[in-house]
Amino acid sequence: MYDCFSMNNCYVGYLNHERSHEHNVILLCPGVFSALSCIHAGFSAKLYHIRVMSLFCLFSVRNATFNLGSDVNLTCSNRTWNTTMFVVWNINLTNPPKVCRIAFDFGGPLVDTCRDGKSLQNTSRGQSYLHIPNLSNDDVGIYGCESVYQGGNEVHMINMDITVPPRLSAWLESEGEKMVAVCWAERAKPAANISWSQAGSIVETPLEDGGFFSVESRLELLEGADTENLTCVIDHPYWREQQILQPALKRGRIPWITIITIVSVFVLLGGVLFYVQKKVVMRYYQQSDGSETKTAPTEEMEEVEPYASYVQRVNSLYNSSAVMFT
Q1: Domain 167-249: CATH superfamily, name plus number
Q2: Rounded to an integer, what is the distance from CA 8 to the centroid of its chain?
Q3: What percent of the chain has pLDDT over 70?
Q4: pLDDT at 154 (0 to 100)
């Protein structure tokens, strides 16, 4: 079915594919400046797949999502530099907020106010594209591109987002007399989908933090359930295949008071050991000093002992001569 109507001085072609349930909207505008008002009118009417065409401009809006860490090439136009006059990328980043510009004028200097690794490059045919290496959450935002060529120009708005896989963990814990299996998919984009291989009462809690989504799924196991064959299954667009985890028994988290007590005991033991070691060393040095003091007189006695034990001997020959003369 094809309908035509007028909206804010824009001639709109509305094509409805009943089988695919897709809506394509073509806005025919008289010039470049009225194209923006046509796009605004299209958004107001909740027409999201929009393309504006005129004799002078081609305007399109599209969404693009890429995996975290991938290298991305965004194309503004399929025209080559043989007919292109200049290309301008106006980038509005969201995490953190930042506005920058990358532009190239044929025969002129390159303008780059982003300075974060993004660059204008060319294919072997001479077609220009914006290269974004190692895509991260900092690159999420709106990328507006304008390409001016001989005979007209193209303006494209690309809402770019990333796909981030979740960090996964699973465990078993007891709640009173009940056994509960927990499956945790943390900081993903978009949120992950969790399912279980066994039946039971399931409570799922979604959380959002800075544009990232976490999901906790808690399964209350039935009495006599086989925990050895219990698994949780995680689906996410980042992966081509499902991720399967088997929960392991978890005794529970150590409370902070227990951690503080253990640390305090270790510190106290360390202080006691240091004090005892210091006392032993001091006693050793004291004993060494005392032994040196006691042995000093003995050494002096040994030095004078040959003189002290000297016994004067009388020569009997001289004594007998003296007797004879007297």
Answers
A1: Immunoglobulins (2.60.40.10)
A2: 46
A3: 66
A4: 87
